[in-house]
TrEMBL record:
<dbReference type="InterPro" id="IPR017946">
    <property type="entry name" value="PLC-like_Pdiesterase_TIM-brl"/>
</dbReference>
<protein>
    <submittedName>
        <fullName>Pi-PLC X domain plant-like protein</fullName>
    </submittedName>
</protein>
<dbReference type="GO" id="GO:0008081">
    <property type="term" value="F:phosphoric diester hydrolase activity"/>
</dbReference>
<dbReference type="InterPro" id="IPR051057">
    <property type="entry name" value="PI-PLC_domain"/>
</dbReference>
<dbReference type="GO" id="GO:0006629">
    <property type="term" value="P:lipid metabolic process"/>
</dbReference>
<dbReference type="Pfam" id="PF26178">
    <property type="entry name" value="PI-PLC_cat"/>
</dbReference>
<keyword id="KW-0732">Signal</keyword>
<feature type="signal peptide">
    <location>
        <begin position="1"/>
        <end position="31"/>
    </location>
</feature>
Length: 416
């Protein structure tokens, strides 16, 4: 289904977007004591970053399946949730027999992230133990106390998801430290993902529209992979990220209110020669207890800031830590609002109407006593927080930073 009069959107959208995405109490959530108090796609959660250490509210943990509402438009017209360091999962077991001392950015498996509607994964890949591992590092080096698991394990999760969901499209962005020739493309082949790869030769090179999501699904070109290593495009057929994508600065520079600088490797955000826009929004040091605040009004503010900096261009991906943490709606509500404005001219994508003129919206009232239940698609919403991260005030990363620093200092001194 394609919303008619799409092109008319460009004339009045710049005025509407800034107003409609301002932080507002548009969703009233209800206090809860258990997940059964909340609707489908919600869990009962805290937000200690906002001073709510004991008060729980129904908190959204599931994305709207946007393609079930607005289908048939170019891939680059949509916005998707991306997880930063998708592999860096709290309580993930050590697979190399060494106690891990590093940062954590997510709380559930990649499979669970995909089930909850995440469609973008950030993966850091390294040569390690005669294989390719997912790992944190220092100066491009993976250590046994910062390693998570062989990358093929996570890629097999992606393969299983794409096989089980034949209309879904997943994007992987690789921070690439793999130096072994042909190892990266062979990794995707060995994971069974080569049959889904969108070929570099057919990717838009000068800011043109991508194929429609319907065309991509019908052709089974449902996996987009980008690497930070420019040489991999010619040598292995894996797209160099910054030829096709603009990106704002990550870490602390990317969360400074009122500022949205572009990453040094990226073209300026207002460049028209790249079709995809990745917006980062996560601090350099991830703190679980603070993420619910970060993923709420401050993220909405930054979407507005980056939208203006990019010349009134919406992000196609929003990358966050602890993606299910918020004060109620979080990145899920933000992406719904972006897709609503972009795809049909409505305040949220759930107000879009099939076959209706652009700007014709369903009357969706704001719930006064309970959160809106997401009925789009087949996802039920599944919370898979680790036992350790279930505490509303648990925040191990500050301590881990010190431990990591001292451990790393000891390692580096050995090479002096």
């Amino acid at each position: 289904m394609k919303i008619s009069k799409f092109t008319s959107f460009s004339f009045f959208f710049p005025m509407l977007f800034i107003y409609l995405l301002l932080p507002q109490n548009s969703k009233v959530v209800e206090a809860c004591s258990a997940a059964t108090d909340c609707g489908t796609g919600y869990y009962c959660g805290h937000c200690p970053g906002l001073g709510r250490k004991t008060r729980s509210v129904c908190t959204r943990g599931q994305a709207t399946l946007v393609t079930s509402i607005v289908n048939g438009l170019p891939f680059n017209k949509y916005s998707w949730i991306m997880t930063h360091n998708s592999f860096s999962i709290m309580d993930a077991p050590s697979l190399n027999g060494v106690q891990r001392l590093t940062f954590y950015n997510q709380e559930d498996t990649v499979t669970n992230q995909l089930r909850n509607g995440v469609r973008g994964l950030m993966l850091d890949m390294y040569d390690f133990q005669n294989d390719i591992w997912l790992c944190h590092s220092f100066q491009g080096q993976c250590y046994n106390f910062t390693a998570f698991q062989p990358a093929i394990n996570t890629l097999k999760e992606v393969e299983a998801f794409l096989t089980e969901n034949p209309m879904e499209i997943v994007t992987i962005v690789i921070e690439d430290y793999v130096r072994t020739p042909k190892a990266l493309i062979n990794l995707f082949i060995n994971a069974g993902l080569d049959k889904y790869l969108f070929p570099v030769s057919d990717m838009p090179k000068n800011g043109e529209d991508w194929p429609t999501i319907t065309q991509m699904a019908q052709a089974n070109r449902r996996l987009l992979v980008f690497t930070s290593d420019a040489s991999k495009e010619a040598e292995e057929g894996i797209a160099y990220q910054w030829k096709y994508m603009i990106e704002n600065e990550s870490g602390d520079p990317g969360v400074q209110r009122g500022s949205c600088p572009h990453r040094k490797e990226s073209k300026p955000l207002n460049s028209k020669t790249a079709s995809l826009f990745l917006q980062n929004y996560f601090p350099t040091t991830p703190v679980e207890a603070e993420s619910c605040k970060e993923n709420s009004a401050p993220l909405t503010d930054m979407v507005n800031t980056c939208y203006k900096t990019a010349g009134n261009v919406l992000p196609n991906f929003i990358a966050v830590n602890f993606y299910m943490r918020s004060d109620g709606g979080g990145v899920f509500d933000i992406v719904d609002r972006i897709n609503g404005h972009a795809l049909c001219g409505c305040s949220t994508v759930t107000a879009c109407q099939e076959g209706a003129p652009f700007g014709s919206c369903k009357n969706i009232s704001v719930p006064s006593t309970s959160p809106m239940t997401n009925t789009a698609g087949s996802y039920n919403g599944y919370v898979q927080f680790s036992v350790r991260s279930a505490s509303p005030v648990h925040s191990p990363n500050s301590l881990l930073f010190l431990l990591f620093y001292f451990q790393l200092t000891a390692v580096m001194l050995q090479f002096r």
